[in-house]
Design goal:
Layout (H helix, E strand, L loop, with lengths): L4 E5 L4 H11 L6 E5 L5 E5 L7 E5 L6 H17 L4 E6 L18 H11 L4 E5 L14 E4 L2 H9 L7 E4 L5 H11 L3 E8 L5 E7 L7 E8 L3 H12 L6 E8 L5 H4 L5 E7 L12 E4 L2 H9 L3
Parallel strand pairs: 1-4, 4-5, 5-6, 6-7, 8-9, 8-11, 11-12, 12-13, 13-14
Antiparallel strand pairs: 2-3, 9-10
Helix pairs in contact: 1-8, 4-5
Bound molecules: ribose-5-phosphate (R5P).
Length: about 300
């Protein structure tokens, strides 16, 4: 591997960063990141980045603002130390759901975050399954938007019954569901939901036939687990077989998500390592690594 490349790990994804470095057969760059007692974040690069192509692995996952700030501090340190190019690898892009205004008194925070990243000197972004693909348009720098659908779909291919249907839990995920359905050679069902608040949604109707069929519910992310839990209830009410698999790219699993998902009908949950997940004693959950996808993208720079 080109020795003009340095890969730094922020504190959000140490495991994923290590797996990417192993795939590339390079050591991780030496650095430290820490928080002062008042909450301020600081980082220190412990090797030269002068004229090097720097990659910083940092999801802006919870604690979102701390991880975001740490990424910005990394980028600032690299720019001031004369890095040739700074690529932020943001496997999970926090604030992606704030991609539009719902009224004239709201910010578009995803756009604001993109502006700040460019201001501190980030030259390029690599990310996965953005909540809304148009977020790429908030950047003037190149954004390589990868997808975990192929890895998750291939992992599931031999595990699911032939009559499985792919369920999109809302209209925003139909395109992703169609990609899964193509890999699994099956059809798509769409659940219409209405958002009642930032945390509450209600299923209004199901478009497509689920009676006596096992279901694969897909989504870009699970946060509190509410969307999936309600989708499972709606599918069972519509006569689906109680054989449900869930596949998501980003498993935030916050609050009581694990409890919400401990439904008898959910046989397996697949999520990737874009977010560090504590899967201890959680036999339902399988983590699939996206490290090979990201490493492949970095290799293109050689
Ligand atoms: C919504 O549009 C997203 O794609 C997810 O379905 C949603 O954000 C998941 O959140 P939760 O797990 O809290 O229902």
């Amino acid at each position: 591997m080109n020795n003009n490349i340095i890969l730094f790990a922020g504190r959000a994804n140490p495991g994923l960063a290590k797996a990417i470095a192993q795939d590339l057969n390079i050591p991780l760059g030496n650095c430290t990141a820490q928080q002062f007692p008042d909450g301020e974040v600081t980082v220190q690069l412990q090797e030269s980045v002068r004229q090097k192509s720097v990659f910083i692995v940092q999801s802006t996952s919870p604690p979102v603002n701390d991880h975001l700030m740490e990424l910005l501090a990394f980028a600032d340190a690299c720019r001031r130390a004369a890095a040739r190019q700074i690529t932020a690898i943001i496997p999970y892009f926090g604030y992606a759901r704030a991609d539009k205004r719902h009224g004239c008194h709201e910010p578009i925070t995803a756009s604001m975050v993109a502006e700040i990243m460019q201001t501190v000197g980030i030259d390029r972004v690599i990310t996965l399954d953005l909540h809304a693909p148009q977020i790429e348009g908030f950047f003037r720098i190149p954004v390589d938007s990868l997808s975990a659908v192929s890895i998750l779909g291939e992992t599931l291919r031999d595990r699911l019954p032939a009559d499985v249907v792919v369920v999109s839990p809302d209209t925003g995920r139909v395109s992703m569901a169609t990609d899964y359905a193509q890999i699994l050679d099956t059809s798509v069902v769409v659940v219409h939901k209405q958002r009642q608040s930032g945390t509450q949604t209600q299923v209004t109707r199901i478009v497509g036939e689920v009676r006596d069929r096992p279901c694969l519910i897909i989504d870009d992310l699970i946060s509190t687990g509410g969307t999936i839990a309600k989708t499972v209830d709606a599918l069972l009410d519509a006569g689906a077989r109680p054989e449900i698999t869930v596949a998501v790219t980003h498993g935030l699993f916050i609050q009581d998500a694990r409890q919400q998902l401990s439904h008898d009908s959910i046989q397996q949950i697949l999520a990737t390592d874009t977010i560090s997940i504590n899967a201890e004693n959680w036999s339902q959950l399988q983590i699939v690594s996206v490290a090979p996808l990201i490493a492949q993208m970095i290799r293109k720079d050689e």
